[in-house]
């Protein structure tokens, strides 16, 4: 009875407002009843697995052969900042509200997140008919000395299979001067093998990375570095049959055609860091627009820049990104 009631209360857990006022601090239209979520987790933790079993599934690709995925796996790496706000993603109720709003927009295919967020979205009934990607390695915490020894502390392949999710995602950062990169390379290859054995797609997000004089890890977005990262990622594992790439747009967007020629694997673009102004947001859209025309690029996986846009209008940001496809 409790499970059935919880399912019926999905819409009540997502309380929608009517305001359409757009300001820099605009609150999204969706409110989440955190007290009810906590009650369900406390009194009936099995509701999460039962909601996963009940979830309506769909093919990875729709009729247009494109993917629009909203990403929210940043908090599990301790990466909570957006623009100049260091803890913008720290309020879980607000983040869930923004995610539910984004997932409700036409043309949004699904979400990429860690177990805690996906569990909440399952209880909220927000994942029916959506593509669900489980985030697999989150051990390389932002700013940590072990950031490049990126252990698989998130979803395992068996978890993704058990929960009926549609794919997995992993991050592969390679620093030629850091031995921790070798551990991550090997773990990534075995994760690709385990996903392929289950016929589950895995999205690999590769970078060539370096530490600056301040010790901070930075990703190299030059054409040469992105080309090299794609070549390395494409060759991992015993088969590439179920491997997708998740790639950034290069510093010079005009280089993308040559860069993407490095592999025949299907790819999606990642949103990456976007500045805090509307002009920065518009510039990101233009970079994505050009790269989306390339033959191997099949869609977008974008997180903070859509969930926390410069003008605060989540729906408009998501709709603009969908329009690029």
Automatic annotation (TrEMBL):
Record-annotated membrane-spanning stretches: none
Family annotation (InterPro entries): Aldolase_TIM (IPR013785), Cgl0159_dom (IPR054574)
Residues annotated as domain Cgl0159-like: 65-322
Highest taxon of the lineage: Bacteria
Any single Pfam family the record assigns to this protein: Cgl0159
Segments of skewed composition (Basic residues): 1-19
Protein name, per record: Deoxyribose-phosphate aldolase
């Amino acid at each position: 009875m409790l499970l059935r009631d919880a399912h019926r209360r999905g819409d009540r857990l997502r309380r929608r407002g009517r305001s359409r006022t757009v300001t820099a601090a605009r609150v999204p239209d969706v409110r989440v009843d955190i007290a009810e979520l906590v009650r369900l987790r406390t009194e009936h933790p099995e509701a999460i697995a039962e909601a996963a079993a009940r979830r309506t599934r769909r093919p990875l690709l729709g009729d247009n052969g494109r993917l629009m995925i909203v990403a929210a796996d940043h908090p599990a790496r301790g990466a909570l900042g957006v623009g100049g706000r260091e803890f913008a993603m720290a309020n879980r109720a607000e983040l869930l509200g923004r995610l539910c709003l984004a997932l409700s927009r036409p043309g949004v295919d699904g979400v990429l997140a860690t177990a805690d967020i996906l569990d909440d979205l399952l209880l909220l009934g927000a994942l029916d008919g959506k593509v669900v990607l489980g985030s697999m390695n989150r051990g390389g915490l932002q700013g940590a000395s072990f950031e490049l020894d990126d252990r698989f502390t998130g979803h395992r392949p068996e978890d993704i299979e058990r929960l009926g999710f549609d794919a997995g995602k992993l991050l592969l950062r390679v620093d030629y001067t850091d031995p921790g990169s070798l551990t991550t390379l090997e773990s990534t290859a075995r994760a690709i093998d385990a996903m392929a054995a289950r016929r589950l797609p895995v999205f690999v997000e590769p970078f060539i990375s370096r530490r600056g004089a301040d010790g901070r890890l930075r990703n190299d977005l030059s054409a040469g570095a992105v080309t090299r990262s794609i070549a390395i990622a494409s060759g991992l594992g015993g088969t590439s049959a179920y491997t997708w790439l998740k790639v950034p747009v290069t510093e010079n967007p005009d280089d993308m055609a040559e860069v993407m020629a490095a592999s025949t694997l299907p790819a999606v673009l990642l949103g990456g860091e976007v500045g805090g102004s509307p002009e920065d947001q518009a510039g990101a859209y233009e970079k994505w627009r050009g790269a989306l025309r390339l033959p191997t690029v099949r869609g977008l996986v974008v997180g903070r820049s859509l969930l926390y846009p410069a003008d605060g209008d989540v729906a408009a940001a998501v709709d603009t990104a969908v329009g690029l496809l």
